[in-house]
Design brief:
With 396 residues, the protein is of the alpha/beta class. It has eleven helices and 18 strands. A hairpin with a 2-residue loop joins strand 17 (274-275) and strand 18. Helix 1 (13-24) runs parallel beside helix 7 (296-316) and helix 7 (296-316) runs antiparallel to helix 8. It starts with a strand and ends with a helix.
Length: 396
Amino acid sequence: MQNYDVLVIGAGPAGSSAARFSARLGLKTLMVDKRPDIGSPVRCGEGVSKAWMPEVDLKPEEHWISDEVKGARIFGPSEKKPIMLTAETAGNEVGFVVERDKFDKHLAALAAEEGADIWVKSPALSVIKEGNKIAGAMIKHNGEMVEIRAKMVIAADGFEAEFARWAGLKSTILKKNDIISAIEYRMINVDSDQDYTDFYLGSCAPAGYIWVFPKGPHEANVGIGVTISKMNDRWDVRNYLDAWIKKHPGYSKGKTIQMITGGVSVNRVKDKMSLPGLLAVGDAARLIDPITGGGIANGIISGKYAAEVAKKAIDTNDYSEMMMKNYDLMVKNKFERKHLRNWYAKEKLGTLSDDTMDKLVDVISDVRIKDISVEEILKAVQMKYPELVSQIEDLI
């Protein structure tokens, strides 16, 4: 048996952030991961904004950045004039396309530099409880079962969220309409624009979108996410992506050098992300943005919050539900309003026809993003496409 102040299950961005800030706060910290190689295999589009980085003391490093973009472009089904999101109009959407395996290793290294211990190829196999408190985990490490006792446990085991579920955190359970099935190709010899990440809406990706994230000259991640409730069988998502690529000569001439698949949760912020002695962070807490599918920033920020609450709980020897609720409130105050708005947008966009989607994109593309408001959009729609007002009023 070994004793720690904090045990972190999972070494993705959220887990490494939790371990880093726990160690920085003077807590004896262990982070374990079931994989032998942190960051691999990659299961990510690899796009990330950068406005949030100072909040978590993260500085961009050249070795994990493939491309720095000027903004994002959102295309309607006809792929005419896109909505432009640039530094001047929507700074939060400007950022990097990263090498995710190198990025994850960098975050783990930051945790180690603060003093956290890290075990790889060390899966958590069961939960240890003391009464109703989560008190550690049985970890398989170097071929042996090791009992890790911890004052606080932070579940950061991603989309599967096994540990939090074993512990009894029911909010990890997802509805069918809140899961996106995704597939992505890393392609070379393509004609992507290095200055922009591109998104394509409409029937090409039902209740989802296609993305193109440039990774350098003539190289890009080309992927798709489709809500599983819109799929007839498991091959649909790949068929949609292949059909889109076939229609675009700049991509159909390309060659695929890697393919990744996975699931993404896209739901409203949960009311409960904790149990006595346990905090769930990142994907395990279902903190993916419902409209963008992005979760790296949210995971890292939630990891920092978890460390702060863990410190407070340990210092006061208070592991009650009331103490853990401090974490729930911090996360909800940070993300709930935006995620709720984006969840409603996701639900509504999935019901719009291609014609309606084109008209909506056409209107918004003519409105300065930083000036967007319900009144301004409705006024623009009323002037150009008055028949759409009733369809999009509740969306906006």
